[in-house]
User: Fold this.
Amino acid sequence: MSLNDKIYIFVLFLAISLFSLAIARSKKFFKIEGLPWEGRIASRDLFGAFLFFIGVHLVVAPLTIVYGFKVFFGPFNSVNATGWALIYSMYLACLTLFFFTAKLTDKETRESIWSTGTVSSWQAAYYGMLSFFVGYPIVIAVGQLIRIVQQLVFNITEVDQVAVEALKLSLENPAMSVLMAVGVIGLVPIAEELLFRGYLQGWMRRFLHAKFAIVLTSIIFAAFHFSTKQGWSNIEYLFSLFILSYILGLLYEKHRNLWAPIGLHVVFNTVNVVLLYRS
Assistant:
C-alpha cells in the first residue's frame, strides 16, 4: 500500500471516527452507569485459566505437533503442515479453556463471568455488534496514523500480524481456509473475551475501579499479542489492540454480560477476515 493510500484511509476513517464518536457521546456510550459491581472471580480460577490456555498453546500443542507429526508423516517442513499446526494449536487451546471454565472453576466464578446484568445475552450481543461502528473507525484511523509516521519518519517497513500471516497460509487449501476462518471468527473471540474480560477484568474488579481495571486489562491484552516477528510493526498493533480492548472492556462493564464484548469481537474479526480473503 502506497503512502498516499495510507493518508487517504487515515483521513477517511478519522472523519468517520469523529462522526461516530459524536453520536456515541450523545448516547452516553462511554458513560459507565449502574450499581457498583464487585468482581467475584477467584484467584485460583484466574491463574488456572491463563495456565491452561497459555500452557496448551505454547507447550502442549507444539510438542504434540512436532513429535506426533514426525511419527506419522515425517519431517515437519512444509507450508501446508504449518497451517494445520496453527489450526490445531488454536482449536486445542480454546477448547481447553472452555473445558476448564465448564468443569474446573467455582460455581460463583462461572456465574460471575457470563452475566450479572439486566440485559439478555441476545441483547448484549446486539449492543456489542452495534458498537463496531464506534470502535472500528477509531482502530483503523490510529493504526494508519502510526503506519504513516513509521514510514515517513523512521522508514519502517510494515510486517503482517501473526494472525494475518496464519490466514494467508490457509488461502490455497479450502478445508484449511474454512477451519482457520471459523476459528478466528468463532472460537478466538469467545476464548479471548472469556480470558481477558471474564477472568482478568472480572478479577481486577475485586480490587480496582472500573476504569483502572479496563485500562490494565487492555494493556495486558495488547501485550499478549506482541510478536518478535513483527518488529517495529508491533507499535501499530499494540496501540490498535489497546483501543479495541478498552472498548471491549467498556462494553463488559456497561452491560455486565460477556456476550457484549464477544459480539463486537466477532464482527471485528469477521470484517478483517472477509477483507483479507477478498484482497
User: Anything to note?
Assistant: The chain has a mean pLDDT of 87. The radius of gyration is 19 Å. The CA atoms of residues 248 and 261 lie 5 Å apart.
